[in-house]
Amino acid sequence: MTRKIGVIGMGNVGATVAHYIVANGFADELVLIDKREEKVQADALDFEDAMANLTAHTDITVNDYSALKDADVIISAVGNIKLQDNDNDDRFAELPFTREAVRDVASQIKASGFNGKIVVITNPVDVITSIYQQVTGLPKKHVIGTGTLLDSARMKRAVAQRLHIDPRSVDGYNLGEHGNSQFTAWSTVRVLGKPITEIATEKHLNLEELDDEARRGGYTVFYGKKYTNYGVATAAVRLANVIMSDAQTELPVSNYREELGTYLSYPAIVGRDGIQEQVQLELTDEELEKLNISATTIKTKFAESQA
User: Is pLDDT above 90 for 107?
Assistant: First the structure.
């Protein structure tokens, strides 16, 4: 079966996504779309120049929405990262731009007859994921944001550095908005065979400090080079691969939670049919309150985006 992925938006993130896919042979066909014709054509030629030194071949199509009709997954990396260069560390700064850009992209995706899964990176990701679903009319379970898959990885990195272990040895989740109202659900975090709350006492870990480090990790990267790309691109491609391989993997991604009335990040089982099962965590009262605050923030911004 041919594996086909579309990447829309070939900025720092989209180009990194596309390179990761090509370099690892994750797709047989790759469709690259960007309004900057010269940029996307240059990227395509650059990838083709790389292929003689790669282990896999990828057929590349450029700026043809009709080629998306039979794609398995479309990854949206549309954005204007310069808008996030502000004093507020606010991902909603991109919303006035991305809400319009994404409506245009989503309408063209719909017109192509695409019936696969959409993976959304575009910020603010929870609101934008809602807009993609609204405009394309695809089932909610087929439109998924990377959400806190990256923030959870940042939390794992922060905890692992303190304990001098590999971040893959840390289990647990950041939940809610991929933004300032997200939080680490410490009740879900386990490491060294124990709940992190026990380890924190033994090892003198400051969980508040680690939570802040996970939240601020993206801004630290951003202010160092004026964009982020590797972490979020890796999360997006992992999500696409989980979908295409029907891996049935539990991931904290932005998915529509009926009881909260919005897209936000909460663990779900992901496979070929998108969100295949929603996990139900036993959160503390404090964590539930934080989750509701996050949901309200996203719903308010989504309502504003409709104006």
Answer: yes
- The pLDDT tens digits for 122-154 are 999 999 999 999 999 999 999 999 999 999 999
- Whether residue 26 contacts residue 240, with contact meaning beta carbons closer than 8 Å, is answered with yes
The residues, ordered by sequence, that sit 6+ positions from 155 with a Cβ below 8 Å of its Cβ are: 170, 172, 174, 184, 189, 210, 211, 213, 214
> How far apart, in whole angstroms, are the C-alpha atoms of residue 130 and residue 140?
8
Quick one: which H or E segment has residue 117?
strand 117-120
| Catalytic machinery residues | 178
Note whether 75 and 8 are within 8 A (CB).
Answer: yes
- Distances from the Cα of 51 to the Cαs of 24, 64, 95, 115, 165, in angstroms? 11, 22, 37, 29, 36
Six-digit token pair at 271?
């496979």
Residue 244, CA distances (Å) to 10, 27, 68 in order: 22, 10, 15
CA atoms within a 13 Å half-sphere pointing along the CA-CB vector of 214: 33
CA 187 from chain centre, in angstroms, equals 23
Question: Kind of pairing, strands 183-191 and 262-271?
Answer: unpaired
For residues 77 and 294, what is the distance between their CA atoms, to the nearest angstrom?
23
pTM exceeds cut of 0.85:
yes
CA nearest neighbour of 215 among 180, 240, 248: 180
